[in-house]
Amino acid sequence: MELIKYLNEHFITKSELLECSKITEQELKQFQHEDLVPKASYKLELNLASNSFFGLHSENQELEYYGKGYISWLATVKSLESNEAVYLNFVERYKAAINSLKGKGYASADHKVNEGMDLHIEEEWSHFLNGIYGLCTKSGLPEDIAAKELAILIINEIIEAPTLDEKQRKRLESAVNLLDSVSALFAPHERLKSSRHRLVDEIRRKYKLKSKEVNSKLV
To answer: For the chain, what are the domain ranges?
Structure first.
């Protein structure tokens, strides 16, 4: 099945997350209850049936899949002394990523990444905890989240213009490549509805932009 193949290639199961992070399932549940660690990005309910020499067998199983970056996030959570410190770590990393990108010329006039950034990050934190960014970014970590959101703002600002000059085209191409570098591929059944399809694939097709790998290490 394409979905299971995609998940096994790009995500880790809950058991793998526990093993790599050296924590118990109860500890993970507690971290999630305290709003410190994201929920699973995907849950699969499997109804399995087999037939062999020993006869028919069936069982039900639920699998949870998490972003691979959550191994390092759990290490961060375990290293910090308070819940507030965990949130501040997210905030500081998000802001550092945005500022680093601005220094490289990725600028947006949107209030979300300027005077309204604190409120914006509060909203991003909520999405992060719900597992959304484990699904739609490569790492699920603050750096990729910040790059994704800034790139989307820039792209949407530029394509509002009826026509683009060469400078705007280059700026658009750069933002699309940035979004491409941090966005997940998305599961097969999600791709046509995804931001990657709408703002990477379709924008490249419409504006005849070149694809170029971007270094997503921002800080």
So the answer is: 2-67, 82-207
Q: What is the DSSP track for 98-149?
A: HHHHHHTT-----GGGTTTHHHHHHHHHHHHHTTHHHHHBSS-SHHHHHHHH
The structure's pTM equals 0.90
Reading the chain (219 residues) residue by residue, the pLDDT tens digits are: 799 999 999 999 999 999 999 999 999 999 999 999 999 999 998 776 788 877 887 778 889 999 999 999 999 999 999 999 999 999 999 999 999 999 999 999 999 999 999 999 999 999 999 999 999 999 999 999 999 999 999 999 999 999 999 999 999 999 999 999 999 999 999 999 999 999 999 999 999 998 775 544 443
